[in-house]
Amino acid sequence: MQADIGLIGLAVMGQNLVLNMADHGFTVAVYNRTASKTDEFLQGPAKGKKIVGSHDLKGFVASLKRPRRVMLMVKAGAPVDEFIDQLIPLLQAGDIVIDGGNSHFPDSQRRYEALKAKGILFIGAGISGGEEGARHGPSIMPGGNPEGWPHVKPIFQAIAAKSDDGSPCCDWVGEGGAGHYVKMVHNGIEYGDMQLICEAYDLLKKGGCTDLGSIFAEWNKGPLDSYLIEITAQIFAKKDTDGKLLVDKILDVAGQKGTGKWTGIDALDRGMPLTLIGEAVFARCLSSLKNERVEASHHYKAPTHAAAVNKKEFADQIAQALYASKIISYAQGFMLMRTASEENKWNLNFGSIALMWRGGCIIRSKFLGKIKQAYDKNPKLASLLVDPFFIGEITHALASWRKVVSEGALLGVPLPCFSTALSFFDGYRSANLPANLLQAQRDFFGAHTYERTDKPRGQFFHTNWTGKGGDVSSSTYNV
């Protein structure tokens, strides 16, 4: 029996994707470095399905229809390269290698170029949705060699999650490392969403709001309707064996796998103000300093500012602040993707990306439909913050947003993402910023030059500020 596609790596994600493919009528070949794992899978979850196993790569490749489609679901980094090196002698021109792991986009770009030179088509597919998504419908973000897309499109779009109108949450992203780049930004936005929710929780709790599960369940019925708000409501309903909330017994030290950090570093490299995701990463870093935080807490008293009396009104204001901050996070993420698309000539379709995130993935939400509409109306939209719908939403939420950030400061509740979102918004809406003084300082101590408001853009000037310096300026440069 010849298989439609082969998958290497039978950890939970790999197994669930295979079962998903089989459920949709595809015959799948599987291989795992540890042969016993292949046998256990075939005799267990895969039993009775159109799934064939191999104990060696040669037999595995031989079991595939041409063009051969080989999907890698192994640990990102060196293991991906090791398997590609083993596969190359067994493949022919026109065959397709798909990396479905959480690879860094420069690695996908490198693999795309190396395999293209050998006539092999590489696809780097970002996959989001965790174990459940892999089994029942993930969001899939494929990029790489466009010649390979028609051969994997029927499989990927069949197994992907579907949006409300039935559209698959999977479409071609762009060449080279584009697929894994979009997945990286997705994960960065995920960091931001999670931190914003945590700040809302902290403020509600320290502001005296007690029925957190009901509050989040109510929020999930409105503009904040999303997977993360939904599961947060469920978390607040989960009791430990003693009847107390389980979440209160979980240590406040956050882990991370690095994709948020990658997004922040990429934003710095491109000179883009991705402030909210950066703060979300730093918040996780700060949480890891548990012992230092406990020590510091002994030296500084919490403010004595009285919490809001009207808890319902306070919770509603926090919901508005959360919604506005979330808009900023996505606005920044799409601004970063726009810059990367221009620099790499990827021609990313932002409406399509928003649609891909509507279902299956961790950041799936009702809100993404509005982003798709914004980019469908204007594919060249500079920022969500200048789209008419989002202008109205921000304007409506602004008073509550300012109130919440102020209350957080007075209560001593850290709100790194709420506050940086508001600061970014105030900076973005300002026709004039104090960077004129900054440029004067740079010119004063380093002769870095400046532009003038009364001269055309692109003309640079230097002043001998003390009368003792020279008139020679340094060359101009940007990040």
Report on this structure.
Helix content is about 50%, strand content about 10%. It contains 19 helices and eight strands. The chain starts with a strand and ends in a 33-residue tail after the last helix. The mean pLDDT is about 95.
Q: Which range does the strand content fall in?
A: 5-15%
- Structural class, by secondary structure, is alpha/beta
* Strands side by side in the biggest sheet: 3-2-1-4-5-6-7-8
Q: Nearest-angstrom radius of gyration?
A: 25 Å
The helicity comes to 40-55%
Which stretches are poorly predicted, pLDDT < 50 over at least 5 residues? none
Largest sheet: 8 strands, mixed
* Tally of DSSP β-strands: 8
Total helices: the number is: 19
Global geometry: globular
- Mean pLDDT, nearest integer? 94
- Cα distance spanning the termini: 55 Å
- The H-and-E topology, N to C, reads as EHEHEHEHEHEHEHEHHHHHHHHHHHH
Question: Quick gist of this model?
Answer:
By secondary structure, the protein is an alpha/beta fold.
Supply the key terms.
479 residues, alpha/beta, single chain
SSE map:
Blueprint: E1 5-8, H1 12-23, E2 28-31, H2 35-43, E3 51-54, H3 57-62, E4 69-72, H4 78-87, E5 96-99, H5 105-116, E6 121-128, H6 130-136, E7 139-144, H7 149-159, E8 174-175, H8 178-206, H9 212-219, H10 227-235, H11 259-270, H12 275-287, H13 290-297, H14 311-344, H15 350-356, H16 367-377, H17 388-411, H18 416-428, H19 435-446
Parallel strand pairs: 1-2, 1-4, 2-3, 4-5, 5-6, 7-8
Antiparallel strand pairs: 6-7
